[in-house]
Design goal:
Blueprint: H1 4-37, H2 47-82, H3 97-102, H4 110-113
Helix pairs in contact: 1-2
Keywords: Metal-binding, Zinc, Zinc-finger
InterPro entries: DnaK_N, Znf_DskA_TraR
Protein name: DnaK suppressor protein
């Protein structure tokens, strides 16, 4: 049986870390956008413009990944509250504790993690 209390603590800590990361990323994106508005940068023809566009693209991708990760963490916390944490959502088999250690938000056993079955 999985120690749901321990994993709840781990998930809550990771949730807080991700919320801070999201705030930082939003701040970074906002500051770059504000700086772009105040300058006369032509992204297509200015050597620095492509760098700025790339950095915004990277920050936006990280923001999306962090949001998705936060949703996965929230879903895992809901499974803990429902008493279903640690069981595969597809087959109902207990997820090995080692897998939960590596990915505490996972809803799938190893066999279903990559959609093999």
């Amino acid at each position: 049986m999985v120690d749901a209390g321990r994993f709840r603590h781990v998930l809550e800590q990771e949730r807080e870390r991700r919320l801070l990361l999201l705030a930082d990323l939003r701040r970074d994106i906002t500051s770059v956008n504000v700086a772009r508005q105040d300058s006369n940068v032509d992204d297509e023809h200015d050597p620095e413009g492509s760098t700025i566009a790339f950095e915004l693209s990277q920050a936006s991708a990280l923001l999306d990944q962090s949001r998705e990760g936060l949703q996965q963490i929230d879903a895992a916390l809901e499974r803990i509250a429902a008493g279903t944490y640690g069981r595969c959502e597809i087959c109902g088999v207990d997820i090995p504790e080692g897998r939960l250690e590596a990915r505490p938000w996972t809803p799938f056993c190893v066999d279903h993690a990559s959609g093999r079955r």
